[in-house]
User: Which sequence fits this backbone?
């Protein structure tokens, strides 16, 4: 007995959603617990390193299981033709038309909806999740002239970040109540930051708001020779990388930010108020009765 696990994630002209992938994980875990051997067939577009349907020899399998998504269309019907010698089961699927040959071609359909009583979807959270990384990048800032390295730093930083196992969340400190994609208030932005594991940023306020929220910041100064990001990192006693930093430095900073030491240091920084506030109050109090000359 050997099972081939398939789904829309298997088709060249399909797609892979988080729900599909997590439903597949649930099925794979259930088969592993039951001691049932299986293989997974993946689209070569999404996972070129994995086994594809073309490579999955029908003679090797006794069963084909189709996981998640709607069962309809030529690609699903093609599975019945290619794996005609296998017992075919659909699980956790939606049935649009029970008479569709894509549906009737299965020996058994364990539907989540559209056929019989609805059942719970198979997708579920993994036992452990990767870190959530907010990303706040500085654009423009033409006042730095020839010292600007913003575009180059952003390209290197995001290219590196794309290879990390993390949930990257693009953020913008710009507020706009007319655009649902942006926060309307500063409090809303901070509410997001507080829920992050790390903030990757080339912006001064990305660094500051992360530390004020007790969140480690992987800060890179996009100005050649150092600008306001480096200055703030200095007064906060927080490490910031120069514009020339590369993969090795990014890796080291990432590991430190996600370490217990990095998280503890960020929490410690959050408890320290800016000294300028006390100095401002002292200045105003000392000159309360004076008029400008």
Assistant:
């Amino acid at each position: 007995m050997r099972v081939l696990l398939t789904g829309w994630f298997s088709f060249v002209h399909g797609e892979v959603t988080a729900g599909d992938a997590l439903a597949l994980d649930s099925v794979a875990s259930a088969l592993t617990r039951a001691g049932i051997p299986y293989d997974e067939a993946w689209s070569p577009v999404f996972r070129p390193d994995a086994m594809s349907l073309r490579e999955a020899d029908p003679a090797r399998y006794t069963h084909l299981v189709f996981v998640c998504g709607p069962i309809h269309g030529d690609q699903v019907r093609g599975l019945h033709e290619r794996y005609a010698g296998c017992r075919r089961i659909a699980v956790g699927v939606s049935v649009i038309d029970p008479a569709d040959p894509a549906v009737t071609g299965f020996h058994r359909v364990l539907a989540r909806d559209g056929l019989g009583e609805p059942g719970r979807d198979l997708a579920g959270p993994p036992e452990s999740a990767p870190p959530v990384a907010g990303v706040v990048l500085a654009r423009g800032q033409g006042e730095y002239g020839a010292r600007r390295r913003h575009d180059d730093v952003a390209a290197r930083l995001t290219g590196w970040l794309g290879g990390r196992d993390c949930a990257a969340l693009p953020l913008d400190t710009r507020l706009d109540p007319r655009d649902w994609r942006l926060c309307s208030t500063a409090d809303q932005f901070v509410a997001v930051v507080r829920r992050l594991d790390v903030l990757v940023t080339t912006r001064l306020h990305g660094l500051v708001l992360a530390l004020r929220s007790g969140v480690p910041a992987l800060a890179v100064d996009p100005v050649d020779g150092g600008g306001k990001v480096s200055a703030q990192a200095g007064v906060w006693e927080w490490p910031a990388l120069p514009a020339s930093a590369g993969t090795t430095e990014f890796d080291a900073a990432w590991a430190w930010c996600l370490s217990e030491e990095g998280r503890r240091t960020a929490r410690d920084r959050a408890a320290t108020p800016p000294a300028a506030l006390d100095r401002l109050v002292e200045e105003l109090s000392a000159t309360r009765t004076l008029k400008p000359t």
